[in-house]
Design a protein that fits this description.
six-stranded mixed β-sheet; binds acetoacetyl-coenzyme A; 2 domains; alpha/beta; 2-enoyl-CoA Hydratase, Chain A, domain 1
Amino acid sequence: MDYKNLEVKTSKGIIILTINREKALNALNNQTMEELKDFFSKVAPRRKKAKGIIITGAGEKSFVAGADIKEFLALKNDGARKLSQRGQDIFFMIERFPKPVIAAVNGFALGGGCELAMACHMRVASEKARFGQPEVNLGIIPGYGGTQRLIQLIGKSKATELMMTGDMIGAAEAKELGLVNHVVEHGASVKKAKEIIEKIASKAPVAIAKVVECVNAHFDETQDGFAVEVDLFEACAETEDFKEGATAFVERRAANFTGN
Ligand code: CAA
């Protein structure tokens, strides 16, 4: 699929995915969602050597200002249901991706934009970033997993307040609440995200993938996270990388992990 609104670049093994609709503050229109779906279902899983993915927004002002409101007026019949379900499905692909996916939030992360950032494994925010779920201003609620992930990240009390008031919060408050991992100076969020991915790339890839699975199991009511941990601990212990990691420790040298 040719992408119109997604720019995919690779820098030293790290994929940088830029939502590129700057004039619309990178709002997620139908075309962009289809491109994200294509990328995470077809392109990214084939990039076996990639160290991880950074998602960011084009320009200085916005990460993603939400779903494209201008397209809402054309929604008919079960269009809203399908829109929400597709968004959730795509964002689950991001959340379950076996390599680190980090949102580099360079500005507004509102509505579907905040939801996109929350579906990533971590968030690095520019000091100018603004977060919010302003859907109630439009007569709707967050539809791309935001009602659930915001509670997971910052707790019921504050999440309910943000979703009911539609208030925006700045980067410092987002950090205080646990919504973002790091706040950096404006323009440095991709750099910081790269540093985190580089560090993770020195670890055993299977173990990293299993961390993702265990974390997600915690929030999956159909799974017992502790039981999943036992299974995946065993799976890690069966890898060559476990032998290498333990041997390297004993031999007082750096481990050379292969992903096997
Ligand atoms: N959808 C479509 N277009 C959008 C947009 C969106 N979510 N957000 C901004 N734009 C467009 C504006 O319409 C404007 O385009 P035009 O010049 O063609 O009119 C352009 O981007 C610049 O925006 P503003 O002039 O409004 O810029 P501003 O600096 O004055 O305000 C803002 C910035 C506070 C982010 C404001 O644009 C805004 O409130 N945007 C909407 C945010 C929002 O409500 N997001 C939630 C969407 S619903 C959703 O996401 C549902 C879901 O969970 C799936």
